[in-house]
Design goal:
Length: about 110
């Protein structure tokens, strides 16, 4: 299994919290679930960070059966729709969004 993580580092603009969360949960998740290779997605909303933890507004996890599924999503035509919506949502946010792709290990 592979997971692509999108980490929104920074702050949601004051007064835009509800719109930001609604756009992530209501717009990005359905778009992602319609892209080829995507097995599932989760959105993590930090509630109790420890002192000194990075300033993460939310983290999205997109699951794939394998690297081929991830690569199929990245190369898909539908990904452009996702990128357009991410740019619009970024206007509600002060910070940056970065990706990390993970290969998920299996427990022994």
């Amino acid at each position: 299994m592979w997971v692509r993580s999108a980490i929104w580092m920074g702050q949601i603009r004051s007064g835009e919290e509800e719109r930001f969360r609604g756009a992530i949960d209501g717009d990005l998740v359905p778009i992602l679930l319609g892209l080829p290779g995507v097995r599932g997605t989760r959105v993590l909303w930090p509630r109790r960070p420890e002192p000194g933890a990075p300033n993460i507004a939310c983290q999205m996890l997109v699951e794939f059966d394998d690297q081929k599924g991830l690569d199929a999503m990245l190369a898909s035509d539908g990904r452009q729709r996702l990128r357009t919506r991410v740019k619009e949502i970024a206007a509600l946010f002060d910070g940056e969004m970065k990706h990390i792709d993970y290969e998920v290990g299996t427990a022994a």
